């Protein structure tokens, strides 16, 4: 799991966040390991929308396959711990990873 504060719009931190994410996705030791990227705090007015996530992180919301130096199934979700938005989807995805 990789959590992103969707309200943090500082360009340098966004660049660092993206860099660290793709560094993880390129590690050979993590090849074929599923990733879940959680964009939290989406209940706040200044949270990144889907288009901004696509622009900054080159990700779409939902399940996708990312190919870098390795290949991963990636689930990107927008969520809010206040409203429990997407909590069921996250739990279902984790269950599928653990149980199969």
What's a quick, concise take on this entry?
With 100 residues, the protein is α/β, with parallel strands linked by helices. The chain has helices at 11-26, 50-57, 87-99, and strands at 2-5, 35-40, 62-67, 71-78. A 4-stranded mixed β-sheet has the order 1-2-4-3, with helices on one face.
List keywords for this structure.
4 strands, alpha/beta, 100 residues, GTP-binding, Rossmann fold, four-stranded mixed β-sheet, Small_GTPase_ARF, 3 helices
Walkthrough of the structure:
- Helices cover 37% and strands 24% of the residues.
- By secondary structure, it is an alpha/beta fold.
- The protein has a 4-stranded mixed β-sheet, covered by helices on one side.
- Strand 3 and strand 4 form a beta hairpin.
- The mean pLDDT is 86.
The helix/strand class is alpha/beta
Termini separation comes to 17 Å
What is the domain tally?
1
Succession of helices and strands: EHEHEEH
Using the CA coordinates, give the radius of gyration. Answer: 13 Å
| pLDDT averaged over residues | 86
Distinct helical segment count: 3
What is the C-level CATH assignment?
A: Alpha Beta
Based on Cα principal axes, name the global outline.
globular
CATH topology title: Rossmann fold
The total of beta strands comes to 4
Which superfamily, in CATH terms, is the homologous superfamily?
P-loop containing nucleotide triphosphate hydrolases
Helix content: 25-40%
CATH architecture: 3-Layer(aba) Sandwich
How is the biggest beta sheet arranged? 4 strands, mixed
The order of strands across the largest sheet is: 1-2-4-3
Low-confidence stretches: none
Approximately how much beta-strand content do the residues carry?
15-25%
The oligomeric state of the chains shown is single chain
Organism: Hexamita inflata
InterPro entries: P-loop_NTPase, Small_GTPase_ARF, Small_GTPase_ARF/SAR
Pfam family, one: Arf
Keywords: GTP-binding, Nucleotide-binding
